[in-house]
Amino acid sequence: MAHTKEPKREITVVAAVIRDVEGRVLLTQRPKGRHMGGLWEFPGGKINRGEHPTEALIRELDEELGIKIAVDEPLTFAVHEEHDLRILLLFFRAHILAGSPRGREGQSLRWVAVSDLPSYRTPPADARLVRLLGGNEAP
Fold first, then answer.
1. Helix/strand/coil (H, E, C) string of 41-75?
2. What is the CATH number of the domain that holds 77?
3. Is residue 138 part of a domain?
4. 69: which of 33, 94, 97, 104 is 20 to 30 A away, CA to CA?
5. Are the beta carbons of 6 and 85 closer than 8 angstroms?
6. Does residue 94 lie in a domain region?
7. Residue among 106, 98, 16 nearest 60 (CA)
């Protein structure tokens, strides 16, 4: 009898590359005890059903960091797969319109020089973006 594979659960996630006046990028740390806890990532979150990616990014950064943003151009995308899950990540440039980022869900955040990004442990799907931002990969 042939085994049929159970379909993977699929989610789409949006994340922002936000720079400060010194050119550093904003990273947030995933809470310990959650999926990929302790890793540093570009802030963002899941897109809700029927939600446009830019709307989701605006909503997520307001909820998580208390900032109002404008979403600029898309940068790249990545696909991360686990045994029962496929995550499509959409990365956008964005800039802060109002507010100062603070971890509203208890997460740490840090402004990081692009040259220091490789020293931060990030989710596997962020690796190409880290290389791209560091000029180590053509867009």
1. ECCEEECCCCCCHHHHHHHHHHHHHCCEEEEEEEE
2. 3.90.79.10
3. no
4. 33
5. no
6. yes
7. 16
Single-letter amino acid, residue 7: P
For the chain, the three-class secondary structure string (H helix, E strand, C coil) is CCCCCCCCEEEEEEEEEEECCCCCEEEEECCCCCCCCCCEECCEEECCCCCCHHHHHHHHHHHHHCCEEEEEEEEEEEEEEECCEEEEEEEEEEEEEECCCCCCCCCCEEEECHHHHHHCCCCHHHHHHHHHHCCCCCC
Per-residue pLDDT of the chain (139 residues; tens, 9 = 90+): 555 566 789 999 999 999 999 999 999 998 777 777 789 999 999 999 999 999 999 999 999 999 999 999 999 999 988 888 899 999 999 999 999 999 998 899 999 999 999 999 998 888 888 888 886 554 4
Residue type for 93, please? R
Tokens of 114: 């692009």
- Reference 76, options 29, 123, 131, 30; nearest CA is 131
pTM equals: 0.87
Structural domain contains residue 2:
no
